Amino acid sequence: MRHHTFPPAARTPDTAAPVLMVVAHGSRDPRHAATVHALVERVRGLAPGLRVEAAFLDFDAETVPGLLERLYAEGARDVVALPLLLTRAFHAKADLPAVLGEAAARLPLLRVRQAGVLGPSPLLTAALERRLGEAGVELGQRGSTGVVLASAGSSDPEAIAVIADIAREWRRTGWCAVRPAFASACGPGRPRTEDAVATLRAEGARRVVVAPYVLAPGRLPDRIAEGSAGADALAPVLGAAPEVARLVLRRYRERADLGLAAA
Predict the structure, then answer these.
(1) Residue % of the chain over a pLDDT of 70
(2) For the segment 174-227, what is each residue's pLDDT rounded down to a tens digit?
(3) Domains by residue range for the chain, with CATH
(4) What is the pTM of this model?
(5) If you count Cβ atoms within 10 Å of the first and of the last residue's Cβ in the chain, which end, N or C, has fewer?
């Protein structure tokens, strides 16, 4: 893996690399913000000299408008807003663009660009397997193991289709089966975690494990955990996995036009 050094923070704003503003949804659950900040710290460790900050769309004190105003007051004039989201659903398509647009109107000298969402990516699949291994799953026995790919869920058909595609691609790496499941917006073709676990049992999987395709703890990940009672193992959320941190930097670099190879 190539390592790149970003311009140091002491450089003047017009020549410095854009600030990376990681934008999470936010939650009343304090574990959510703690996980986001842990991920930000890991990203900082991968990119010395790059300013990386976290903001939240809801619930948390550090809001997107508030952080942008603070950055502007401190001299920043170029920001890449990276949605800490795994699929392009409502928050990436509507919520965040609206918030960024309002901020741009108030701060006309501040350039703000929205980066792409994190998924899908082979790095996320690698992070899922890392978390399964941490949960005691024998990755060498994948041929007799069924996996439930449990996402938060969405009413957006594009997001649902992406989860289904990820499950199909992951299955090709040798798992007995990979079934998508959803913690919310369930319905026809959108099974709950417990339903997917039961289906894999009925299909004869020797072991059934649940891999949460979510970034941080909160209400919906807790619902996934509750639905995993019949599984043999439940992996932790993706959180600050090294692969996620590398992917954050990759999406940032793609939008920042730094001409740097992906991590």
Answers:
(1) 89
(2) 999 999 999 986 666 789 999 999 999 999 999 999 999 999 999 999 999 999
(3) 19-118+241-256 (3.40.50.1400), 136-234 (3.40.50.1400)
(4) 0.89
(5) N
